[in-house]
Design a protein that fits this description.
The structure holds 2 protein chains of 2 kinds. Chain A is α+β, with helices and mostly antiparallel strands. Chain A has helices spanning 2-6, 16-29, 52-76, and strands at 33-40, 45-48, 85-88, 92-98, 102-109. In chain B, the strands form 7 sheets. Chain B has a 4-stranded antiparallel sheet, covered by helices on one side. Chain B has a 4-stranded antiparallel sheet with strand order 2-3-4-5, with no helix packed on it. Classes of the chains: A alpha+beta, B alpha+beta.
Chain lengths: 115, 809
C-alpha cells in the first residue's frame, strides 16, 4: 500500500526486455563505441548497429574465436568456463560476452583522443 | 700367348711398376702384354698414334715380333675390328714409355691414351683413372666402338686392348675413318681379347660361427646334412634337372562397372571438456531414455542443418550430438528447439537474464575503458599512457604548464556523477556505503519550501560513472541519507515531509522496505539527518537489528526501532520516552529559558561522538549547538551559542575527541573544544554566503573541507589558520550544497544544485606525520592566547581571530 501511495513513477516497466533495450541504447551512446552486435546461437545477428556486411563478418569471425577460447579454457580445466573476452587492438577494442545461446560483441575506440 | 714369368716382370719394371697392383684374376694376357712391352724400354719419345694401320703394323712388327690377333672370316678376309683410338706412327716405339710414363702424361690426349693403356694393360690394376667404364665394355660390348678399338690396337701393333673413352675416341674415329682404303681392309688384323672383371651375380659370403657359440651344434648338424645331401644328389633319382616351358596366357582386358562408393568424412575433436561434459551429463540423466531417442531422430536432422550454418569449430561440439548417446544432450537439443521459433527468436533472446547481466558487465567494461585514467587517479594508481594513443607534442606543453602548478595544493576534477535523470535536481546529501567503499548513495531534494518536487535517490558505483546502479523515485524530496553499518544493504532515507524510510538496495525496483508514514509520532518537518546506531551497543532485545536516530525540523530527535517483520510499517514507532527533547527558547542570555511554554526549535544536524556513543551534538536553527546525552531527554549537557544563524552542520573530529567543527548560515565556520564555550578558531569569509556543509578529512586531523554556496574550500590548519589552502569556485549559476571526503583516497566529492556530483582529487596537500598533535597544539596555543587576551578584556566575547580571508577567485 505504501508503494501505491508513493507511486513509483520511475520503476521499470517490469519487462526484462525493456531493460535490455535501454542498456543497449545507453551503451551505444557512450563515447567511442563503434557498434554493438547481438548474435543468436545460429550466427544470425539479432541486434546490430552497424552495416550488414561488417556485422556478418564480425559475427562469423568472433564466433570462431570465442569457441576456440572457450575450448582452450575448458581443456585446461573442464569445470571452468569463459565469461568474457577482450581483444585489444591498435585501433579499437573488441569486447565479447559469449554464451550458449547468444554472442554479445561491442567494439569501442580506445584512443585517448576520442574521449 | 706366352706365359711370362711374373718375376721377370716385376724386376724389370722396377719402382714404377709398383704403382700397379696386381690381382690374381689377371689373365695371362696381362702378363704377357707386360712382358712384351718390356723389350721396348728405352725410347722416350711421346708421339701420337694414328690410325694408319699399315705403318703401325709394320712398326709393330719391327718392334719385335709381337703377336696380334687377327680375325678372319670364312672367305679369308680380314675382319679384325678396328680400334677406335688414333695412334701415332711412332707410338709403337714409345709405347712402353707410354706405359711406364703413363703417370706422367700431361696432355689430355695422352692422358686418355694412358688411361686406355692402363685399363687395357691390366684391367685389374687400379689406376688413377676411372676404369670401370672401360672394363665393362671391353669384352661384353659388341659395339662398334669396342671393335674399332680392338682394330686400332691391332693396327698399331699394340697388344693392349683399348676400350674407349667413347666420346674422345669416337671423335677421332670419325676423323680417321676416311683414311682406310682397300688395302687396309684386306689386311690381317690382330684381335686381342681380354678378360673383364668378374661380374658377381650371386654372392653368398661364407658365414663363420664360433665353435663355442650356442648354435654351433645345430650348424654343424646342418652342415653335415647338407654334405650328405650333396653326395646323394649326384645320382639320385629324386633330383632331376629338367626344364619346362610354360605358356604365358594371352592377356585380355575386361571392364567391370560398379556403383560409386560414397565416402563421407566426419571429424570429431575429442577435447577434455567434451569428455567431461558427456561424462557429467551421462551421470546426471542416466534415467532418461527412449522417449527422447525418438525425438532425437527428427532433431538430428535439424541439428544437421544447424551444423551447416555454424562454423567448423562449432561443428565439433555439436557434431558430437549426432553420435553421442548421452541423453542430456538430446534434452538440451529439445530445449533449444522449444525456445527457438523463428519469429520470436530474437525477442526471447532479449529477455534472457544472462544477456542482461552480460550487458551490465559490458557497460562497466566500456566505462572502465573510457574512464581508466580518472579511475586510476582515484585509486591512486599510476596513470599509464595509452600505448596506441597519438603522441602529442601539445601534451608536453601541457605538462610543462602543469609543472608550474605542481607546488601548490589544488583540486583536480576527475569526473562527475550525473545523468539525465539528475539534471536540474539539487543534491541534498551524499553518503558512502559502509561496506563497499565504491558505492555512493546520493539524495536529491530541494531545500526550500517552494521548490519542492519529487525526490530521487541514486546509488552510484565507481565502476559506472554515467548511469546509477539504483534509481528510486520518491514523492517528496530527500533530505537525509544514511547507510547502515550492520546491514550494508539498508539505506535510511529522510524526506522533506518528515517521513523516514528504509530501503533495501538489493532490490532493483522496489527498494522501499519500511517507512514511517503509518506511525503516530512521525516527524512533521523535514528530517535533516539520520544515523544508525551500532548494534552491539543495544542491550534490549527488540533493538537487536539496530536503531535509527533522526533529527527533524519539528524539534524532535527521535529514535526508531526496526522490530521483527521488516515489511510491515506498523512496527515502526518512535520512542517518545527515549530521546524526545524539547528545546527552550534561546536567547543570548539564556535566562528566559525556564518559560512554561516551550517551543521546539527546529534541529538541523547532529553528530555523535566517535568514542562515547551516548554523547551527541545537535545544531539548531537558532544557532545553538547543544551537547546532549542519550540518557537524558530533558536537559542538555552544554549549549554552545555563538552562531548567529542556523547551524547547518556539526562534526566531531575523527581524530581529536575534544574538537568539533560547526558551520552556519552566518558565513562562518567554527572550531570548538568541547570544554570551552566559545569557539577556538573561527573562519569566516567576506563572501557573504552561507556555509552549507563541512566535513573533517578522514586522513589528516588538521584538514577539513567546507562548501559555501559559491565555492569549495579546503582548509589545512597546519598550513594556515587564516586562509583555506584550496579554493575552487563553482560553475556559473550553480550553488554547491554538499561535500564528502572519500575514505580510502585523496578525493572529495562536491554536490551542486544541478544534480552533479563532481569528484576532485586533492593534489599536493601537505603530508603530515602527526596531524593530531599538530591540531592539538594549534588549539592549545590558540586557547592559551585567548585566555591571555581574556585577561585583558573583560567580558567581551569578540573573537581573537579576525575575519581575514582572501578573495582569490
Amino acid at each position: 500500500m505504501e508503494l501505491h501511495r508513493r507511486g513509483f513513477r520511475g520503476g521499470w516497466r517490469g519487462c526484462c526486455q525493456a531493460e535490455v533495450e535501454e542498456t543497449l541504447k545507453r551503451i551505444q551512446s557512450q563515447t567511442g563505441v563503434v557498434g554493438i552486435i547481438v548474435v543468436n546461437a545460429e550466427g544470425i545477428p539479432i541486434r546490430t548497429t552497424m552495416d550488414n556486411a561488417t556485422t556478418v563478418q564480425y559475427a562469423g569471425l568472433i564466433h570462431q574465436l570465442s569457441m576456440k577460447a572457450r575450448s582452450t579454457i575448458r581443456d585446461i580445466d573442464p569445470q571452468n568456463d569463459l565469461t568474457f573476452l577482450r581483444i585489444r587492438c591498435k585501433k579499437n577494442e573488441i569486447m565479447v560476452a559469449p554464451d550458449k545461446e547468444y554472442l554479445l560483441i561491442v567494439i569501442q575506440n580506445t584512443n585517448e583522443s576520442s574521449l | 700367348m706366352k706365359k711370362i714369368n711374373p718375376a721377370l716382370t716385376s724386376s724389370k719394371m722396377g719402382g714404377s711398376m709398383k704403382k700397379f697392383p696386381s690381382h690374381h684374376s689377371i689373365g695371362n694376357y696381362s702378363r704377357h702384354s707386360y712382358k712384351s712391352s718390356i723389350s721396348f724400354l728405352g725410347s722416350t719419345s711421346r708421339q701420337r698414334v694414328n690410325l694408319q694401320g699399315e705403318k703401325i703394323s709394320d712398326k709393330s712388327y719391327g718392334a719385335g715380333g709381337r703377336h696380334f690377333i687377327q680375325v678372319f672370316d670364312e672367305s679369308g678376309k680380314d675382319v679384325t675390328p678396328h680400334s677406335l683410338v688414333v695412334f701415332d706412327a711412332t707410338f709403337a716405339q714409345s709405347r712402353q714409355n707410354k706405359i711406364f710414363s703413363s703417370q706422367d702424361l700431361l696432355s689430355s690426349d695422352y692422358i686418355l691414351t694412358g688411361t686406355m693403356y692402363q685399363s687395357v694393360m691390366n684391367t685389374s690394376f687400379g689406376g688413377p683413372f676411372t676404369r670401370s667404364t672401360f672394363d665393362s665394355g671391353s669384352i661384353s660390348r659388341s659395339s662398334r666402338t669396342f671393335s674399332d678399338s680392338l682394330e686400332d690396337i691391332g693396327d698399331s701393333g699394340i697388344q693392349h686392348d683399348v676400350p674407349g673413352l667413347h666420346q674422345y675416341f669416337q671423335i677421332r674415329r670419325e676423323d680417321v675413318r676416311e683414311q682406310l682404303n682397300e688395302d687396309d681392309l684386306n689386311k690381317i688384323v690382330d684381335v686381342f681379347l681380354t678378360e673383364t672383371e668378374t661380374f658377381t651375380f650371386l654372392d653368398l659370403p661364407v658365414e663363420m660361427v664360433s665353435v663355442d657359440s650356442a648354435e654351433a651344434e645345430s650348424i654343424k648338424q646342418r652342415n653335415q646334412l647338407y654334405i650328405e645331401l650333396c653326395k646323394e644328389r649326384v645320382g639320385n633319382d629324386r633330383y632331376i634337372e629338367r626344364m619346362a616351358q610354360t605358356f604365358s596366357g594371352a592377356r585380355k582386358s575386361k571392364e567391370v562397372q560398379c556403383d560409386k562408393i560414397n565416402t563421407q568424412e566426419t571429424g570429431v575433436m575429442a577435447t577434455t571438456w567434451d569428455m567431461y561434459d558427456s561424462f557429467k551429463e551421462g551421470e546426471v540423466h542416466e534415467e532418461i531414455s527412449s522417449d527422447h531417442a525418438n525425438q532425437q531422430k527428427d532433431l538430428s536432422q535439424i541439428n544437421f542443418d544447424r551444423t551447416i550454418l555454424q562454423t567448423l569449430s562449432a561443428i565439433n561440439s555439436i557434431g558430437l550430438e549426432s553420435r553421442s548417446s548421452t541423453s542430456a544432450e538430446s534434452e538440451s537439443v529439445i530445449n533449444v528447439q522449444g525456445t527457438e521459433e523463428l519469429e520470436h527468436d530474437s525477442e526471447e533472446l532479449l529477455k534472457n537474464e544472462k544477456l542482461k547481466h552480460d550487458l551490465f558487465i559490458m557497460e562497466r567494461v566500456i566505462m572502465e575503458n573510457i574512464f581508466q585514467p580518472k579511475l586510476a587517479a582515484y585509486r591512486q594508481l599510476p596513470i599509464l599512457p595509452d600505448p596506441d594513443g597519438p603522441s602529442n607534442a601539445e601534451e608536453e606543453v601541457v605538462e610543462g604548464i602543469m609543472l608550474l602548478d605542481i607546488m601548490s595544493p589544488r583540486l583536480q576534477p576527475l569526473w562527475s556523477f550525473t545523468c539525465s535523470l539528475t539534471k536540474g535536481r539539487n543534491v541534498s546529501c551524499m553518503v558512502w556505503n559502509k561496506h563497499n567503499l565504491d558505492l555512493l548513495a546520493v539524495g536529491y531534494g530541494q531545500f526550500g519550501y517552494k521548490e519542492q518536487r519529487g525526490g530521487l535517490i541514486c546509488c552510484w558505483s565507481l565502476k559506472n560513472p554515467m548511469w546509477p546502479e539504483r534509481i528510486y523515485n520518491c514523492e517528496s524530496g530527500i533530505t537525509a541519507l544514511e547507510f547502515s553499518a550492520d546491514s550494508p544493504n539498508l539505506l535510511a532515507v529522510g524526506h522533506y515531509d518528515g517521513t523516514v524510510a528504509i530501503y533495501n538496495i538489493r532490490n532493483l525496483e522496489n527498494g522501499l522496505v519500511l517507512d514511517s508514514s503509518n506511525d503516530h509520532n512521525k516527524h512533521i518537518g523535514p528530517v535533516w539527518q539520520l544515523k544508525w546506531t551500532e548494534q552491539d551497543r543495544n542491550s534490549k532485545e527488540d533493538e537487536k537489528e539496530g536503531t535509527l536516530i533522526s533529527i527533524a525540523a519539528d524539534g524532535r530527535v527521535a529514535k526508531w526501532t526496526l522490530a521483527k517483520g521488516l515489511e510491515s510499517s506498523d512496527l515502526m514507532r518512535i520512542k517518545q520516552t527515549g530521546m524526545q527533547t524539547s528545546r527552550k527558547m534561546a536567547t543570548d542570555k539564556e535566562k528566559k529559558s525556564e518559560a512554561s511554554i516551550s517551543r521546539q526549535a527546529p534541529g538541523m544536524c547532529f553528530s555523535f561522538h566517535p568514542k562515547e556513543a551516548n554523547i551527541y551534538l545537535a545544531g539548531t536553527e537558532e544557532g545553538y549547538i547543544h551537547k546532549c546525552s542519550c540518557s537524558y531527554n530533558e536537559q542538555f549537557l552544554e549549549t554552545y551559542g555563538v552562531h548567529k544563524g542556523p547551524v547547518y552542520k556539526v562534526a566531531w573530529s575523527p581524530f581529536s575527541s575534544d574538537t568539533f567543527l560547526s558551520c552556519s548560515a552566518d558565513w562562518s565556520i567554527h572550531v570548538w573544544n568541547q570544554e570551552v564555550l566559545r569557539p577556538v578558531l573561527r573562519f569566516s569569509s567576506t563572501i557573504t554566503k552561507a556555509v552549507h556543509d563541512i566535513m573533517w578529512s578522514p586522513k589528516t586531523a588538521t584538514v577539513f573541507g567546507a562548501v559555501n554556496e559559491d565555492r569549495v574550500e579546503v582548509w589545512d590548519l597546519a598550513v594556515s589558520i587564516l586562509d583555506p589552502v584550496i579554493i575552487c569556485p563553482a560553475n556559473e549559476g550553480l550553488t554547491l550544497s554538499t561535500i564528502l571526503f572519500a575514505k580510502n583516497t585523496d578525493c572529495i566529492l562536491v554536490g551542486d544544485s544541478n544534480g552533479e556530483v563532481i569528484i576532485y582529487e586533492l593534489h599536493n596537500m601537505l603530508q603530515q606525520e602527526d596531524s593530531l598533535i599538530t591540531l592539538d597544539d594549534i588549539i592549545t596555543a590558540t586557547l592559551d592566547s585567548q585566555m591571555i587576551s581574556d585577561s585583558y578584556k573583560d567580558s567581551t566575547e569578540e573573537p581573537i581571530t579576525t575575519n581575514i580571508c582572501d578573495t582569490v577567485e
